[in-house]
Amino acid sequence: xxxxxxxxxxxxxxxxxxxxxxxxxxxxxxxxxxxxxxxxxxxxxxxxxxxxxxxxxxxxxxxxxxxxxxxxxxxxxxxxxxxxxxxxxxxxxxxxxxxxxxxxxxxxxxxxxxxxxxxxxx
Length: 122
Known about the structure:
The protein is mostly helical.
């Protein structure tokens, strides 16, 4: 199916304004798309929610909380860490995971302004 535009005149000012908006926020939107893509997974959104609410957790904590194996949690943490959404810090033999400064505000906004906030308040 081919789609055609039927407008008589283009609003060149609007088009130019919108192009400038996209240029100014393009990288932010790309970051948001990355986060949304990653949190589209049930386990990863739970991990991000828990890390955000507790500030940091280790893989064993997440394994116990979510009732999953350590390797399964580790695989999800690796995906989040590879994208720079979470970071790790070693204390002795334990590695703690937390949100990176770069994504902290974005993740918190997604988690607190969306469905999770509504579920928590019920």
